[in-house]
Amino acid sequence: MDINLLLPREHVVLAAAAADRAALLGFLTAPLVVDGTVTDEGEFLAEVERREQQVTTQVAGGIAFPHARSHCVRRLGLVVGTVEAPGVPFGVDGREWCRLFLLIAIPASAPTAHLPLLKHLTGIVRQRARVARLLAARTPAQVLRLLATPRG
Amino acid sequence: MRDLLASLLELQELEIILEECRIVHGDVRLPAAADVEVRVQHLRQSVPPPLLRRFDALRRLGPAVVHEQGGTCNGCHLNVPRGDLNRMRRTAAEWVCPNCGRYLMLTG
Fold first, then answer.
1. CATH number of the domain to which B49 belongs
2. Number of domains chain B is built from
3. pTM for this structure?
């Protein structure tokens, strides 16, 4: 999977200064709005929230894959974000904290287009050493390198 | 037909969510995912078997139900002839895209 096409440098948000889940998702959605991937920020964020309420996308290790299908998404989009420790409360009950976020925007017309991307990303975040390096990354280029290959 | 396709659309959405759960959470069983599974079973029982068989066959290739927007199928992005759309609206024809064969949820 060529992640470079989906993840321009502007789609990497390092050390986002967000106090809660809503603020964080707003930070992460901004690059998608700027480049026209998402045409209606409010609608997209509402869909992300709705999806999160159905079944959480948070996994062990403080990682989450918020995503949503929406008519306001023009093409598949990915934004990677990190926050400084201790992170942001993300789980539905607000008890679990996350530091690494992989936000995926999915066009309603291609509702399964993101599944190969999701497989690729989950394969990467199951490697603890790789997650530690992602959280320590200081430039978008480092993040891109870490996400580009399934192993390494 | 609209109610039936609304059920199929919901079924498609929930099945995709379960697929996402399998990818993201692996073998971890979440209570919320179990609730989704129950709803999927309920929807499957409410849809006539011939439609469900066609739905499953289409789902193996990708989305089975798509929206029509301005006379265009959102699945194959080709125009649907106006005559076909009119017949579908009169329920004289099945709500299926004549180009790609997907179930077509008509607007309006």
1. 1.10.287.1490
2. 1
3. 0.90
